[in-house]
Design a protein that fits this description.
about 475 residues; alpha+beta; eight-stranded antiparallel β-sheet; 16 helices; about 30% helix; globular
Length: about 475
């Protein structure tokens, strides 16, 4: 899936001038490290940038943007490189690669963390772990923090602590004209509002300050059944979750039975229905709260107390696979919706790391600030087809399954969607990600900070 960016051969003189005074690394197609530097999480994305600027400082970021603009290069911004659409790369363009900027500074007294724009979740989670503090992160440790937070940020802790953007206290941003601006509740408040879900449309975020919460221990329970038990399990799980305390997270997941000790041999490598319960607290509390689900006659069980940082690594998506994801946000989950969702699990590619997921929302997500451009927060459920596979011959099959999942649950959809969960599904879906009124307001902010739409490789908001 090559991008049709603006491809330019960059002159040696321009490159030499750029390298002078640039403290990071400048990589071009002839370099030994080039292929590694251009690899992103989704193996379907195979783009060849003209220049990869591995920034170490804010000044590097500003210099890279200036160099890209002066040489007519399309600019991509790379944090974790985890986004399914592969917009962290530009074909023939410039990549502003932030991965060296991953420092995390924790203020345990103030319960805040200052995080570099190139950090992934594990950088933050491991830094806060010694203090018994955490904040809502992505559901795996390899997710890039920047794109995650700027897109809204849903994870295992969101029902307890809100979305990641609800915990955002300030952002430092390098704009299209190379200025550094700070956005917070009292500095550039309109930009700060836009950064709560508006994505990377307004500049390159070089650091974030996030609110932390006490979280000394987590409990995780993974229970598994044969797939034909799915509809009954899903109904019990739905009823349990809709009245569960905010400490409960997790999801209902159809997946390939993993080769783990707790999984019976006849379930390994086959389609299974699973419930993951995450609990912000100790094991006995979790057992008391989750009794309705634990009492179901399951075939496999793994229950453990662990740190949040360890939970984040437990379900890390393996790199090197082809990826296609989508999502539909649901106003309710009546029995017909449950049946439709469960029936489509038969189309899941097995064996593969693909997952057919129902995530609950509610709790602090639903109670969070209504003014931010994340209208999907009001949906109590999300259906999330999450495809990972190896053989290009399966590309069309997985895409069709993802779209069929959406079509099956469309009667209950609210229309809004979390853009971090989808690839390029057209401009209508981008507008649906923010809501039409929010989109217009975001376009005005875009017009102020990036009138030339330099930062367009994203779920793009056009300048108003």
């Amino acid at each position: 899936m090559a991008s049709h960016g603006t491809s330019h051969a960059v002159g040696e003189r321009a490159l030499t001038d750029f390298r002078t005074g640039f403290s990071g690394g400048v990589i071009t197609p002839g370099d030994a490290s080039y292929d590694e530097a251009r690899t992103v999480f989704n193996a379907m994305i195979d783009r060849r940038p003209a220049v990869i600027a591995q920034c170490e400082t804010e000044r590097d970021v500003a210099g890279a943007i200036r160099f890209g603009r002066e040489n007519g290069l399309e600019i991509a911004v790379r944090g974790g490189g985890h986004g399914v659409a592969g917009t962290a790369l530009s074909e023939g363009g410039l990549v502003v690669d932030l991965r060296r900027m991953h420092t995390v500074t924790v203020d345990p007294g103030g319960r805040t963390a200052r995080v570099g724009g190139g950090a992934v979740m594990s950088h933050l989670d491991r830094a806060t772990e010694p203090y018994g503090l955490a904040t809502t992160g992505g559901r795996v440790s390899t997710t890039g923090l920047g794109g995650f937070v700027l897109g809204g940020g849903a994870g295992w802790l969101d029902r307890k602590f809100g979305l990641a953007c609800d915990n955002l206290l300030s952002v430092e941003l390098v704009t299209a004209d190379g200025r550094t601006v700070r956005a917070s509740g009292d500095e550039n408040p309109e930009l700060f509002w836009a950064l709560h879900g508006g994505g990377g449309n307004f500049g390159v975020a070089t650091s974030f300050t996030l609110r932390l919460h006490p979280l000394p221990v987590m409990t995780a329970a993974l229970l598994m059944w044969p797939p034909d038990a799915g509809p009954e399990v899903a109904r019990v799980y739905r009823d349990f979750t809709e009245s569960a305390p905010d400490e409960v997270g997790g999801g209902l997941i159809y997946l390939t039975g993993p080769p783990e000790e707790f999984v019976p041999e006849d379930m390994v490598g086959r389609l299974c229905c699973a419930v993951l319960i995450t609990y912000a607290g100790g094991m006995q509390e979790m057992r008391d709260v989750a009794e309705p689900v634990l009492d179901l006659d399951h075939d496999a069980e793994m229950i453990t107390e662990l740190s949040y940082a360890d939970l984040q690594c437990m379900l890390d998506d393996p790199p090197g696979y082809r990826n296609y994801w989508s999502a539909e946000y649901l106003a309710s989950l009546p029995d017909p919706a449950v049946d439709a969702f469960c029936a489509r699990a038969d189309d899941l590619l097995v064996p593969s790391p693909s997952q057919h997921v129902l995530f609950p929302q509610g709790g602090a997500v639903a109670r969070g600030p209504a003014e931010y451009p994340v209208p999907w927060r009001r949906a109590p459920w999300v259906a999330h087809p999450f495809g990972l596979w190896e053989d290009p011959a399966d590309d069309e099959r997985v895409r069709r399954w993802a779209h069929d999942v959406r079509a099956d649950v469309a009667p209950w959809s609210i229309g809004a969607v979390y853009l971090n969960f989808i690839g390029n599904e057209g401009e209508d879906r981008v507008v649906a990600g923010f809501g039409p009124e929010n989109y217009r307001r975001l376009a005005a902010v875009k017009g102020e900070y990036d009138p030339g739409n330099v930062f367009r490789l994203n779920h793009n908001v056009r300048p108003g």
